[in-house]
Each structure stands twice: as structure tokens, then as C-alpha cells.
Amino acid sequence: MSSQFSKSNITGVLVYAPKSPTYSSIIEHAQKNPRWLNSSSAHPLLIIAPRKETELRPVILCSKKFELQIRVLGGGHDYEGLSFRAESPFIMVDMSNLSEIDIDLEEEMAWIQAGATLGHLYYEIAKKSRVHAFPGGICYTTGSGGLISGGGLGSLMRKFGLAADNVIDAHVMDAKGRILDRKSMGEDFFWAIRGGGGSSFGIILAWKLKLVHVPEKVSVFRVHRMLGENTINLLQQWEHTAYLLPRGFFLRMIMQNDGVGKEKKVKVTFEGLFLGTVNELIPIVSQKFPEFNLEHKDFFQEPVINCTERPCLKKECHEVPWIGSVLFLYNKRVDESLEVLLDNSVPVYKNYFKGTSDFVKTPIPEKGWKMIQRLLLEEERPMIILDPLGGRIDEFSETELPFPHRKGNLYNIQHLVNWDDNSESVSSKKIKWMRKFYREMEPFVANSPRTAYINYRDLDFGTNQEDYSYSKAKMWGEKYFKGNFERALVLERSPPYVS
């Protein structure tokens, strides 16, 4: 490796070996899901933290020579830890130093290096404009390289499409150590990295993104209800309505436990972002969801809590600039300092979790919601997050990008279960519950194939073995990509992408 760096006239590259004191801190910082900290999976032989894109070429060439895998770490939100662990010997590339962002408001575009987080991007946009945004993910600590290469669901997608739908160009280093742009990589390669998982085809170095227009003021609100017989009607109303709302209206639903023991109930939270003023929002909500009881005054006073009668109703409502909605949907105060968007420190509190996902094409009947209620009450700290689709997403064909979950899908469900004791007895119990929940959901979600979102990767679906083939891999690949999986696999095995 040192020889290759010398040949490339590269000096001072950051390389960390297992005995380096910095090595362990990078591994710990990498894992937003610390479930893998005590994993028996191998740790990297070396961690490379490039400060220049050209420093990656020796890494690729040496890894090829010694048949080492490469794992690329962006923001660390890889649910199954594949960016920082492997069963075979591997090198980990930490992209966090490659985080430059160049915003051009005149052209309404931005070049962003793949090591920058979404929060960093949102921060830089907000510093320069109150009427521009980018339709990325809600969890802003996610790395831009990973989110965009997987498609990129987010709160602006119904108006502007996925994050990947708004990519104009990219820089990628291929298996030969060449830096390619859209023209030199070709349209097939460019198609594959926008939703097909970037590290399958090379290392994403930077994206050229199209910025979108948003109003100077947007409206956000959060309404909580306890799940009961009447609330199930509201759930069904949401699934029949949310994907048909005006495109600038994103209304997601979150279900989780509230209380303990015999007092435990399922709490349902409706979170809304509307690209417009309160005056424009209130008539829509009053017509579609009168049960929310949203009023103009709710947006200009302290949140109202009224638990004198069941179901308990709490309202949090604000009219804010777009960047305030970013903070709100991540459970921050809307007036919090924007510097919080740049915080990438290791959380003191360790939250371990298992996640998976589904897409839904037909509304879930009452018996399905009652089943969900029963299973959520069986376990501590489960959660499901339901994001409505429709709008702009429906205007793209299934083959436009590797992400195929377009027209005909009502919403996406993310299933999660959390725990704070990572002992084998606790974690195995939690994962067993998640697998049971996933099985029970089968009659109510998309089928033939049952589909999932690649950015919520779940190795329970299957993994590549040394003798992998399309016939074996399609068992999991078609869940994420449907018919696009075959095209992507052909590309992955074709020059110049193969090693």
C-alpha cells in the first residue's frame, strides 16, 4: 500500500491499522446501529480516510491485487453494518473527510462530495437561501453517498421525487482506479448508481444535484392519538387519502408503544409537512382529516396538550422556513441553532435495533390493523413508520431508475424494534419478534414479489455466496429492485465495472 501511494505521488494519507488508537474510535463512530460493535464479524485490516479523491486509487489497486473486499463508510446508517464489517478480509474506506459542498444558486445546483451528511447539505443550502431545498432523507445524519445511491425517500418526494431523481451528474471511481463522470461512465452506469446501491459498481465520490424551490414559509404539525376502535377508522382514512393529497403535502404516520405494563397502549403520531402557509393548509386538513381538529391558532401558540378525555390528543404546530421543517421532523426544536445539523458526535446512549421494510399496494383492512396493534403490544420499543408515496413519484416508470416502487404503491412501511441491552438473550428475543412481525404482515403488503427498500437493507432476505448467480440472488434482489435487478446484475459483471 505504501508503495502504491509513493507511485501515485501521494503523501500523508490517513491510514489506521488495528493497533492505532484512532482505529477503534472510527469503528465506534461508524456504527449508528451499535448492534455490531461486539460482532464476531471481522474488522477491517486497515481503515483509509482519504482527504483527496485521488488517494482512493492505490486503495482499489492494492485491494484487487490481494483479493480484499472494500467497504465504503458514509454516514453509518447501514442497518446491517455492511459498510464496516465483512466475513472476508477487507479494507474500510471512511469517506467523512471528503465532504466539500459547492452550491451555485444561479444554476440552482450543488456539487456535494459523498462523505458529506444530509445535514451538512441542508445547512449549506439554508445559509445561502430561504427558497431552495433538496429532497433528501428525513434523518439528516445519514451520509449523502449512501442515501442517494439507494434512491432516497424523504419528506419532499411527493412534490419533487426521490433524491436520486434529482441527480444531474456524478463522479465515481471504478475498479481500475479511474474517476468517471456521467459522460465517461455512460448512461447505463449512471442509471445503476442512482438507486442500485453505489458500492456495487464503484466508489461514489460526488454528486451533482438539482436544487428545488420551496416557499419562504412552510407548515409543520404533529398530532398524537391513542389507538382504539375509533382510531382504526382514522388509520384507514389515512391510507386511502395520504398518497392522493396535494403534492406539497407530506403526511406520514408513526405507530409505537406508549406507557408500561397494563397501561401500555399503541400511540399513533401523524406528522405533516405542507409546502405552504397555515391559511392554505387548514382548509385541506379540515376537509380530509377533521379529526385532527387543527386550527389557525394552534400554529401561533405553545403546543396544546389535552388528556382529559381519551383518545389523548396533543398538537404541535408551526409555520417556519423549510430548514425549520428539517429540524421538526427529526424531533428537534424548530428554532434550534442550525449548527445541530453538523453534529456528528457519537451518541452517549446506545440504541440497538433491527429493521426491515415493505411497500403497500392495497389498503390494510381492519383485521390487519388489529393484528399490528396486538403485535406491537407484545414487545417493548417496537415502531413502524409509514411514508406516503404518490405525487411526483408516480410519474416515473419502474425502469427509470433501479428503484422500482413507483405508481401503484400507496406507502412504504419501515419496521423497527429497539433495545438498550445488547446481550445475546435480549437481542435474539428482539430479532425473533421482528421476524414474527414480518411474517404476520405478509397478507397485507405487496407480493409477487414482496418488495422492500434497499436503504433499509435486511440480510434475512438472503446474501451472496461465493458461487452467487442471478437465479440464487434474485430471491433477495427482486425484493429491492423487481425486474431491474437482472439489468443491474448484467452491468455489474460487464467491463469496465468488474475488477
UniProtKB/TrEMBL annotation:
<keyword id="KW-0325">Glycoprotein</keyword>
<dbReference type="InterPro" id="IPR006094">
    <property type="entry name" value="Oxid_FAD_bind_N"/>
</dbReference>
<keyword id="KW-0285">Flavoprotein</keyword>
<keyword id="KW-0732">Signal</keyword>
<dbReference type="Pfam" id="PF01565">
    <property type="entry name" value="FAD_binding_4"/>
</dbReference>
<dbReference type="InterPro" id="IPR036318">
    <property type="entry name" value="FAD-bd_PCMH-like_sf"/>
</dbReference>
<dbReference type="InterPro" id="IPR016166">
    <property type="entry name" value="FAD-bd_PCMH"/>
</dbReference>
<comment type="pathway">
    <text>Alkaloid biosynthesis; nicotine biosynthesis.</text>
</comment>
<feature type="domain" description="FAD-binding PCMH-type">
    <location>
        <begin position="40"/>
        <end position="214"/>
    </location>
</feature>
<comment type="similarity">
    <text>Belongs to the oxygen-dependent FAD-linked oxidoreductase family.</text>
</comment>
<keyword id="KW-0274">FAD</keyword>
<dbReference type="Pfam" id="PF08031">
    <property type="entry name" value="BBE"/>
</dbReference>
<comment type="function">
    <text>Involved in the biosynthesis of pyridine alkaloid natural products, leading mainly to the production of anabasine, anatabine, nicotine and nornicotine, effective deterrents against herbivores with antiparasitic and pesticide properties (neurotoxins); nornicotine serves as the precursor in the synthesis of the carcinogen compound N'-nitrosonornicotine (NNN). Catalyzes a late oxidation step subsequent to the pyridine ring condensation reaction in the biosynthesis of alkaloids.</text>
</comment>
<dbReference type="InterPro" id="IPR016169">
    <property type="entry name" value="FAD-bd_PCMH_sub2"/>
</dbReference>
<keyword id="KW-0560">Oxidoreductase</keyword>
<dbReference type="InterPro" id="IPR006093">
    <property type="entry name" value="Oxy_OxRdtase_FAD_BS"/>
</dbReference>
<protein>
    <recommendedName>
        <fullName>FAD-binding PCMH-type domain-containing protein</fullName>
    </recommendedName>
</protein>
<dbReference type="InterPro" id="IPR016167">
    <property type="entry name" value="FAD-bd_PCMH_sub1"/>
</dbReference>
<dbReference type="InterPro" id="IPR012951">
    <property type="entry name" value="BBE"/>
</dbReference>
<keyword id="KW-0017">Alkaloid metabolism</keyword>
